[in-house]
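Appendix B, record 7
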Amino acid sequence: MQKRNITTSSTLQEEDSHGTRPTTVAMHHDDGHHYYGRVFPRHPLLLGVISLTVVMTGLLKPSRVRFSVDTVQEKDLLAAEMRHAQLQHNFSNITTTTFIENLQEQIQAQQQDKFAKITDKMIVANRTNATSSPSPTNDLQKSFEDFKSSVCLTEACIQKIAHGIARAFPDRTNKDQWCISASAPATPESTSNDVLNTKHRKQKGLILVKVPKSASSTMAGVVLRLGHKYKCDLKYIHRQHVVASKYYGQRHPQKSILLLSVRDPAQQLVSNLFWSYITLRDKANETISDEYILRFSRDFKSTQGTYTNGQGGHALAYASLTKIPLYAAWSKETHDIVKAEATIARVKAILEGYDFVAVVERMEESLVALSLLLGVPVGDVLVTSSKVSGGGKNSTTTTAPYVYSQKRQRCLPMVPSVVPPVVQRYFESDLFQSQVYGDSILHAAASRSLDLTIERLGRERFQEALKEYRYWKDKEREECASRVEFPCSSSGQVQLETAEENCYENDFGCGYQCIDEMLARGRVPGD
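Structure tokens (predicted):
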């Protein structure tokens, strides 16, 4: 069987520079669990009493806690999940249900912490070899080379499915529908310090679902630029790392625009490994073995990897507007795909539920298409990439060499991604592809949807806009890249106050003043 040709990139290092771990399906930035604006402490006795109470009242039955995929026919799975989510939001015992979810999340977080300690020990064990890393064991390699999935995973099969569910994204030129004016009359939600403090509110405004390691910081710069340009209330510029099903499943469709960016699953996994477990853990001087990378990639329970607990893929679980049950797409017993039709239906629901999905590997085309859909100049979506960018004043580097860690309160050297041959073979194996089946379809369908959107907009019109965008992008690299000031200087010095003056927020949209000045001078491309 012909395998999908998976390529990985070591140049894309897009993500937050706050030093906190990217939010995933099972983890949050904070140390507690939010429910309707309150934080519940992780007190063992309190949780024990709650658990006992729940058991005594019979609310821990699986049919009440989590939707069971075995209770409906394949064709009705997605609809049943949506009904379940809607009913769950209206249950009078929602507090108890939320407590149960929190307990599940705590268990997964503990598993993640345990895995992190193990992987750190693996790095230390291999630090003595500074020139070459040991090869992974034959057992590890054999275990994935011998596995064959029952579902077709070739590139041709993935593309066929993607073409069947892709769609052209709609125009959203009416800015009043997604830009909540800062001068609008105050409402209870607009006066809140955090518009996300109630999970199930109908969210409004510019909403970006920031899937970790999928150019989400660059996209955050774009939505902030749009917000500043059109004087939108920044309370309604959503750019946090939060799971979509918890906050945006009931968004206000006529008063919001929902955006997403997706990336090749293998690239996302490697990027996340080097970001979360090497760069942010200050492991730049450690020797990283092939075995360490392979073991991380194969960790079936990792909430920091590309896939999470058999839900079809990390991006799919993160972006789905309804919660995907654990192991609803992939079996931990057989290590194979289950209910493939339901996974395809979930991908289709994402494409239909979002107003636009950008493709990281086609970011220039994606941003130009977005500008045309919104009816704004291409300069309004032009930003300096957050981590594929200059390293500061007088710097000639093409990538930011340091990132600021809020946890460590200092700048850390960024470690570029490396994909050993054995890991590349694993990415092309049925074992890996079966776990990211949903993400692979989502990535391919988003790319096909971009093609359909370009065709609907008009190929000639799009090419003219793309030419203009690339002209300004080249000018931005020439005039602004060396002047951009990030939270870390090119020599690794912390410069938060300087960055605050140069960036919209954190490392989002840095250098926007230079871009504005450049665009203000004006020049028609080709003159």
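Remarks on this record: The longest helix spans residues 94-125. The radius of gyration is 23 Å.
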